[in-house]
Amino acid sequence: MSILNGPRLNFWGGISTDVSVPNNSPTLPNGIATSLELFELTTSTVAEQARTYSDDRLYELINTPDPRIGPNSRYTAGGWNHYGEHVVTLHNALISSQGTPGSISLEGDMVGQPVYLLGSVTPGTGQGPYSGPMMVDLDPTGTTTTQIFVGGLQIGSSTAPQLLIRWNTVCSSFDVNTRVLEPATMDSPGSFHGSGTFQLTFPLSSIVSYNKDSAGLKALIEAPNATGIVLRFVMFEMCPTLTTAQLNADYAANQFSPNPSIGRVIGTLATAYADEPQICPPGRQLINADKDLNISSVAYAEVANGQLSLDMVNLIPKQTFRAVRDDITSPIGPNADYGTVTIAAGTTSLASFAPSDPLLQDYYRYGGIIDVPLTTTQTQLVQSTPLGISAPGSARNPALSAPECPYRVYSDQRNTYLDPDNPGVQITLQVRYLGAVVQDDTPIDIAASATAVYQANRYWDFLEFPNSLTVPAGQPSVSFSVVPVAGSRVQAGFTTLTYTLDNNPLTQSFSNFRKYAWSDFGIPAGSIVTWEQAYQNVLRFHYLAFPAMSRYIQLNQPDAVMGYKQAILARISPEYQNTTLYMSVVRSMSPSQRSLLTSYLNGTPWQP
Amino acid sequence: MSNWSRFTALPLMLLGLGSLPASALQPAAADAQTTCPPSAVVPAAGASQAAFDQYSWQMFINLNWPAKPGQRGVADCSKPLGSSGSTVWQTYKSVSETFLPGARDPGPWNSKQQRKNLNLINIAALKNTQVVQSDNQAVGGWLIDQRGNPTYYDIAANEVSYNYIVANNFYNAAIVDAAKTINFPQNAGEIKASWRILTSADDSHRYLTMKALVTRFDAQGQPNGTQEANLGLVGLHIISKVEGFPQWVWSTFEQIDNVPPKVKLGGKWVDQPVSGIFYSYFNAKAPADSLNQSPCLWQQQGGNMVCTPKPGSSFSTPDPLNRVTPITDATLQINAQYQSDPQVQQSVFKYYQLITTQRPQSPDNPGNPLGQPTPSLSANVTMESYIQPSSSCMNCHSMATPLNSQYKSDFSFLFRFAHAPAAGAAKDKE
Q: Suppose A493 and one of A27, A136, A459, A510 were both cysteines; which one would form an S-S bond, judging by CB atoms 3.0 to 4.6 Å apart?
């Protein structure tokens, strides 16, 4: 269902994401072979070694051209973007096709309308939005997944929106597909090869208004059994706006411009139905995992109403990166030529597409989704046989083979934040075999590990959970509890739980957890918090890692911080927590840090 | 413009408010516009830095034209640029004329001008404080020039802005604090000026000058009487809310002797003082780590942060500055173009330079409502002295609200100067 089997609006265009990156690593290269311990990222504080440096000196070190020039060069010691505000923006993302599976047309009443992701309105006043959606890493050192917090969606102009949704929610990517083959390297982080896929679901109640005369919108919103609107979008062909030379010149001139990553977006809006995953793509997984070429990519498939619908937006990579670095709105162009693409169930071919087929040439205008009509016999075959997508290869590219991974496990609970005294959370895992509930009792293995850089046990090994579960035959899901171990309230870090079916690594999916630590910061209870204590334990990390915050409120100026007391207290409050306005946007502050800041601002005795 | 039932196009031009709709694209290499009546043409969104800098200079000239006596905000086109007397912007209503004690109605726009009485040395005006009264001078920090004198600030609104405030009773803190919508009309404008005391050692011919009564301060920065002073303009912020730019357009100018220019030598940007120039805020002998440092040792007094001099210094200890972000080549070229214009050459304004024009690159993207401030930084050394590396007009002003309200006030901090109504007094509008 959803984007695969319901009515659709497809769009494509440009996208930018303005993440500040020095906090992606706890250390800072300060020489060819030396590093400075800069940040303690589990506690969002400045590392011990860096504390003796002045703020100005640390800024200088972060903004110095990378002393280690090479394939892993990050532009400057702190990375390619120190001044990002984390805003995600769609640029000229226009609806390009609409319709129902099997009848998607490049013409329609919504074609040409712009699509925008919105930031949150201000809690309490309802004003705004004044900023946009925000990209946030649960673990800032992670490289395979990220989140985007949004406050709504709009189709059409602000003066006459076709569709306006206001809803605070978050989506996250979970796989990195190989999306651009060439060149091998360019003046960009290596992520220029990859893509990130995101899905959001908005309930019907979040729709503020829509054009009831639009056939395209009515098809989505007034579909029988509709529970909401789902959006799946992919960002790829991303690179920082500025080259290394341009960024270094900018910083040398103290311009300190943001350097967002810019690239392409392809998306699909569709009807959401009950019992569908909110942030995970539905359907059966076909995985292209060519280890020889180090390529991995995934497609999703579902059968309904006589159609086999396949989300192939990520399956076939693009041959080369776009010619003009900052041109993100021209036509995306076709993907790499692997020869005729065949979709089969077992050894039975269901459909073939020559490279010249419009569905491949102009795949991005259709959201990358292909619908294959099925006979009754074919439908039965598809429901009982693993699918496969293959192509023989071409002069330029080897053969492509994406067999179905029959088992699939997934969960909407991809990112969870745990306060120090959190009693635990329940995780629900969905399990499918060939897209349907399992016919046999099916064991799931669960293993914990570090999410990324913080490998030492104390940073991740603090959760209790079952090492294995069984999904009973005929059941779609199983739930289990994840509980912080007793005595772990002083531990902070990042844990990944990996779920594996059938001992097959291809089935793996995961949930990430960020745990905050309780701390008294060494400040006696009952004392009045000083500026020095508030700055060193809370604000200084943010002043250095996210200087864009100080363009709003100067975090190193006592008068500015106190002068904006009410604004700060509002932004760290629970009312803002699920919005794009939360301080900090990247959810770096622990409850103890918020408490310390509150005590300082209110002049109340410290109660850790 | 069609919303302005009270204005016609002709008086609009004469008022010197003159920003025509953004649909007119300003060519980048046009001649300097230095005529009267003034006509500043805002470029379309996405236009070049040069195009917006030309707009800023046009606004600067418009606003610095000599004003018609007895007619606030109106240029006197019978006089050349640089004639003696108040400039157009000097006839704007200052915060002390707009926000009266007891929240009294400040009256119609064209009231008689009073002698200037400058007491505001708070470098951040009232942005960084919960304190209403502008006579608590120690709040916010000060800027002392190289002669040991404080820098004085004044903030004023143009007629569109002033009339909006008065029509909505927003000079009354109780009313503006309760307002749920504050939205200035098009062509609203504000200025913030910075002045230094001109001593006998200074060349006053290089400044726009003004005689005014100024507050004196003791060694701890506490008010200590008043004195007559001859002031020279060292900085001017101009903000204009023009069609197509709901986030406003932000221009800032400085007198050219504030700090030395920067040049790139050996790959690094360095200060290059011009021989023979006394820089008002720069000291070539000051250690690098003493530059651009707030003089304040912050003390919490009551609920407020109060600036007291750091140990070893007093209120009159000079605060050495330099420019952190060099003026770009594009802006320098526009400066040269306008400074060499004959009208500007024969006036004091040839001693002024544009620092930059900040505007939203994409003012109309609902997914990014701030609109991508471009350039990302803008700092006037006399007003953002200690926060230059983080200074963005648009980002900072996007936080503006009245003092006791969470509702945004359309990028304007003016309402922080509003007073509470006198106890028991009925609010009435003349």
A: A459
